[in-house]
C-alpha cells in the first residue's frame, strides 16, 4: 500500500484501533503514539489497546495515559465497532497474543505498518518494508510525503524515541545519511535527545541492574569463540523482583566481546522461554530464529516458545547458530 493510498483511506473513516506487539519496545510505543496524535489531529476517534502494560521506562512517552491494556470484556465490543484496525511494528497477528482472536475476527480494514520481513497476507494492506530502520521512520516518511498533517513536537518526540532505539542509538547498518536528516528535522521540533536517552536507558530500577549482574556471571563462549550466550532463570527474576522487560538489551553484552559474531540470551519464563539473538555483518540470525518459531531482522531477531524447557533448547540452538556462522 502506498502513502497516497493510505492518505485516501484515512479521511473516509472515523473509528480507529491501534496496537503493537507483545513486550513493546520504544519503536512500538513511539509509533503507536505518533500515529495516535496524527489521527487525533484529523479529529478521529482513536484507541490504543495493547496486550501488555507499557514498560516502566517507556511510560514517560505516554504521559497522557492514552494506552489501554486489553480486557476482552471491555474492548472486544469497541474493536468490533471500529472501522480500521492498525497494527504497528509487527508482521504477524500472533505477535499481539491475547488480542489475536479479536484481530482475526475483525471483518473490516486491517492495516499493518511495519519494517519486518514477510508480513502476513492476512492484512488488508501493508505499509512499509525492510528498507526502513524503524516503524517510526515509516510514519515520518508518510507524514512528510503525504502532508496529511504537519509535523509537530508531540509527534516528533515519539518518532525520535522510536528511531533512536531501533537503530541502536544510530549505530546499526540502516543509519544512513537520509536517516540523520530525518533526525535533524525531528530535533528542530524542540526534541531533546539527552532527555529521551536518559529516560529510556539511564533510569533503570535496582532489580534490573542486579539481574544484569547475575546474567553476566552465566556468560559463556562456544568452542569457536565466535558465539557468546547467557542465561537468565525465572527464579532469578522472581527473587530479585525484576520484570520481563528488564532484560531488554542484555543480549548486547554478548556481542560486545572481541571476536564474537553472534550473541544469544536465553531467558526462562514460567510458561517456556524466549531468546534474543544478535549478529554482526551478514549473518542472518532471523533465519535461526525462524527455526524456533521466531523471526526478526538479519542482525536482530528473537523467539518465544511456550510450554517447553529452556535447558532442552540451548544445545540445538547453539548448534544451528554455528551453522549460520559458517555459511
Write structural notes for this entry:
There is one protein chain. The chain has 327 residues and is an alpha/beta fold. The protein folds into two domains: 198 residues, Alpha-Beta Complex (inorganic pyrophosphatase (n-terminal core)), CATH 3.90.1640; 120 residues, Roll (Diaminopimelate Epimerase, Chain A, domain 1). The chain is 39% helix and 19% strand. Helix 2 packs parallel to helix 5, helix 2 runs antiparallel to helix 6 and helix 5 runs antiparallel to helix 6. The model has no long low-confidence stretch (mean pLDDT 94).
Number of continuous helical runs: 13
- Rough outline: globular
Indicate the low-confidence ranges by residue numbers.
Answer: none
Query: CATH first level of the largest domain: which class?
Result: Alpha Beta
Structural class: alpha/beta
- Please give the oligomerization state of what you see: single chain
